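Record 1 of the preview.
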Amino acid sequence: MKGTISRCLALMVRAKAGDATWKEIVKDSNAGPSGALLEIATADVDDAVVGRLMANTCKHMKLTSEQACDAFGEYWCSDYAPKLYSTIWRRFKSSREMILGMDQVHIEVTDTMERARPPRFDYAWKDDKTLVIKYKSRRQMVDVYVGLVRGVGKAFKEKLSVKKLTADTVEVIFG
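->
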């Protein structure tokens, strides 16, 4: 996967727990001698390494997986993405717009960035407030996606109820 995920994770851990904690996470994750590649947004980082980084973030920060995914999602949406991806971020005026627009953003990323394989999404409305999202990725990171959707709600200061229904399906209730 692209290094933007591990870069955001590194920045989040440093902001919340310090540089020493991040260095321990990198060491325990067998992520290379310095972990420098992990902080290059366009680098290709092995999926297994990112999985170990997430697991060790939970361990070192004493977080459950859900807490770590929520913290990552909130950091991504409040600090990281609005700066790094400001032109994309400014396209959207609400959490509903952003969530529904991410499949198109991921199509554009795939077309412009070599070896990019972001998740894709299918959307189905249950009613005017309830959206069911099919998360399509071989990486099986739907829990991170749930945290990101919650982060989108916080970034737009909108109330969202987000629930993982299955290993690849998420329900979002707006309002």
